[in-house]
Amino acid sequence: MATWRLSELNRLDRERFVEALGDVVEASPWVAEAVANQRPFHDRAALHRAFCDALEGAGRGAQQAVIRAHPDLGTKLEALGEASRSEQTSAGLDRLDPARREQLAELNAAYRAKFGFPFIFAVKGADHAAVVAAFEARLPNDLETEFTTALGEVETIVANRLDDRVAEG
In which region does residue 34 sit, left (phi positive, over 0), alpha (psi from -120 to 50) or beta (all else)? Predict the structure, then answer.
């Protein structure tokens, strides 16, 4: 992934800006398109806030599409986008033994059955135990609480991805 200086992103034309940051929100370049119109940004925090505002201001259907675009954790890592694969690999989800892989598959299935969308957890800096603990803590939630939590996790993922790609200045 390319690393950009914020000043460079602010000067890009709209198309190149979306090309640079269109995958910051999983399979949802429309968010970067909305953010492009708000430039210039004075710091990375303002850029992140713009992504969050675009997500929070979107209709429920668009938010659901963003949430549903996320992959199940620990499955089909080879088919993931570069950012998702890197995040899941950093959490060791590519190196699970068969029992832990099965545990994750069962938790993913239970979560999807209950809520109708994939479990979203910002795995950067986490490990298998933290992922399992998050599943167990969140599975009892009601749909609205979990939808809000999932959207918050998307915003954390966006912050992590921007931190990895965008330098101040």
Answer: alpha
State the total domains in the chain: 1
CA distance 30 to 52: 13
Mean pLDDT of the residues in the chain: 94
Question: Is 70 an active-site residue?
Answer: yes
Predicted TM-score (pTM) of the model is: 0.94
Q: Provide the CATH number for the domain around residue 9.
A: 1.10.3330.10
Percent of the chain surpassing pLDDT 70: 99
Quick one: pLDDT band at residue 2, thresholds 50, 70, 90?
A: low
- Structure letter (DSSP) for residue 167: E
User: Secondary structure of 93-115 in the HEC alphabet?
Assistant: CCCCCHHHHHHHHHHHHHHHHHH
State how far the Cα of 106 lies from the Cα of 85, in Å rounded to an integer: 20
